[in-house]
Amino acid sequence: MIRRPIVEFAGLGVAVPDRVVTNADFEKTLETSDQWIVERTGIRERRVAGPEQTVAMLSRDASLLALAAAGLGPEDIHGIILGTASPDRLLPSTACDLQALLGAKNAFAFDVAAACPGFLFALNVAEGLVAAGQGENMLIIGAEKLSTISDPTDRSTAILFGDGAGAAIVRKATGGSGAVLSTYMKSDGRLADLLYRPGGGAVDPISDKVVAERSHFIKMAGREVFKSAVKTMAEACDKALERAGITADQVDMLVPHQANLRIIEATAKHAEIPLKKVMINVDRYGNTSSASIPLALDQGIKEGRIQPGMTLLLVTFGGGFTWASAVVKW
Ligand code: COA
After folding, report:
1. Binding site membership of 155 for ligand 1 (Cβ less than 6 Å)
2. Which domains are present in the chain?
3. Which of 36, 156, 261 to probe ligand 1 with, by most ligand atoms within 8 A of CB?
4. Catalytic site residue 216?
5. Per residue in 106-132, pLDDT tens?
């Protein structure tokens, strides 16, 4: 029997690009409307990075804030685990580029390919590595530049996604705040083709054909993804609570993946957590995939809605399908 907490959050930081793209901006290029987007998704605007701002750079900015909050320097990091669905390059990992930018010379570094649950998968992995004695201070990141893999001509996906990064220092538990009381992750690869990028990988390497077919961009069966999301988010809530040995009424704040307001509402309803105890910022950032949970956490802290000692339920789902959750005593 493993005794938790094994790790605790010691610092958090986020970074988003300055440029705001509103629904009205999409009205100029796509057959869509602010009303449709708000009603179906809850999204009003999202951030978009320019060519000069890479995923590794967004990650660096978020990581430096997380390090400062933890009172650590780059050389104190033993491992860098970066969740992303939009890596800067296919080789090497964005985590290695981040390591170089930070000067984290004592760390190992690798990416986690788990789509939107990337940050919580990274947390699960960090917990396991700390338990295995691979180091005490792990830097976990969720960072995306989804604007580069979304098809600007596809109204069913282009409007959903945004760019940003969130980072956290997860250290060996000291009995302090931020204790991770439970973690959970699960996948179902049979659902892969509901949300995927068909071209540009080893199966169909980048070519004129891939570009002409636009198959290097995200393809999504929206309605099916929606249904699976509601189901997997519910299961992830149940599992994290069960593993932490608590019930939903003991949760002070639900911090869900920000994909769609209606999915967030369905998740809260399943868990019987009132909406006033739910972090929602999908309206401001859209779906930032793996950056979504740390961005919501950070907003809750800055707004004073998340306070030390609170019990948080973090829950997420995404392409793969993958889903994950955690209970944290903040
Ligand atoms: N503006 C206007 N109309 C749009 C549109 C847009 N941006 N995008 C799609 N539509 C149209 C569709 O073409 C369709 O038209 P049709 O009935 O003439 O074929 C109609 O709206 C309804 O489409 P549908 O896909 O059934 O809508 P929906 O209520 O399921 O909402 C999503 C679409 C994408 C918002 C919703 O399915 C969703 O959020 N799914 C989950 C996606 C997600 O979370 N992905 C990330 C996972 S991490």
Report:
1. yes
2. 7-176 (3.40.47.10), 180-329 (3.40.47.10)
3. 156
4. no
5. 999 999 999 999 999 999 999 999 999
